Amino acid sequence: MSCEIIQFSAARPKAGASPIAERLRTLRAQLAERIAARPTMGLKLAKQAVNQSLDAQGQWAAIQAAFSLHELGHSHNMQVHKLPIDPDGAAIIRQQSRSSAQT
Length: 103
Hints:
This protein is an all-alpha fold. It is built from 5 helices and no strands. It is 78% helix and 0% strand. The longest helix has 23 residues, at 59-81.
């Protein structure tokens, strides 16, 4: 398993990649090697502990609420625009983003 992680992390950069991108690639590969060297059971237990603490803080309920509102938005757009997204949405967001950047 560690070979897969290292091979994936050590993917060759695209031509003209920035030094920062190359440094991030190197750090990612080093981190992947460190993680792959750890005992599997310990990693699983640590991940489970993090997930349980997030659940105790309400992350699951928050994700479910956000997703249901997301789906409601698609349903609304299907009724109004006959499309799952507002066809003008990207342009509106882009324009508002530019306006807020200027202020």
